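Minutes, project check-in
Item: structure for the 251-residue chain
Input as provided by the requester:
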Amino acid sequence: MATILVVDDERIICDLLRQILRPTYEVLTAYRGREGVALFKQHRPQITLLDLVMPEMDGIEVLRQIRTIDPQASVIILTGRAAQASEQEARALGVTDFLLKGGLTSEDLLRVISRVRQQAEQAPSAGGQPKESILVVDDKPMVRTRLSEFLTLRGYRVRAAPDGREALAAVKQEPPQVIVLDLYLPGVNGVDVLRRLRGQGYKGWVIAVTASQDEKLLQEILELGPVDVIGKPVDLERLGLMIQVGLAITS
């Protein structure tokens, strides 16, 4: 029996979804984001139904942590109101689908879940080799969203991280072919992130993103190659070309 995880701070929503889904699926519920991440790690559900707006840890952060655990996990956002910025970031993180709570029928829910399951089951045999994966690391949400959406539309499998700590965790979980890495990050800066990755044996292509003209900084990052550098604001077409070149060189 397939497992579905429901993460929503409204207990009535969790209870309702459990009632609808339980005849067909094993249903796990979490009322807080951290609890949802812990259950995901433990049970690896086939599908996660995730509320966007929650206290302490919101749905975007939960989705980001799920992506570091399983970059291909099927996640359906279940939200009570449209929030364009949050929806854009969720799409950039590879959300599978969106459902609005208002007016959602049990038939609609079951139909969407059935479709998502079929897509997940067909994915391994339909595509042969997996798509090239890219990790975008930038502390500015708008930049992460813009780069992630552009690269997703180019056919790449994209994950995103807001800082060096999460970038290191994401690479440990699944090394990407390319990292698009902001040099100025809170906590651990981009140079230190790449230095640690190289020390751990990561050999993928890295594109350093920076508005700085600090020659010493640029020299430090280039010495940790293979690395290319692109300035801010990012020229997306040039970034796309640099990624193609990097993939060709490292493949």
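Outcome recorded: The chain has ten helices and ten strands.
No further action items on this chain.
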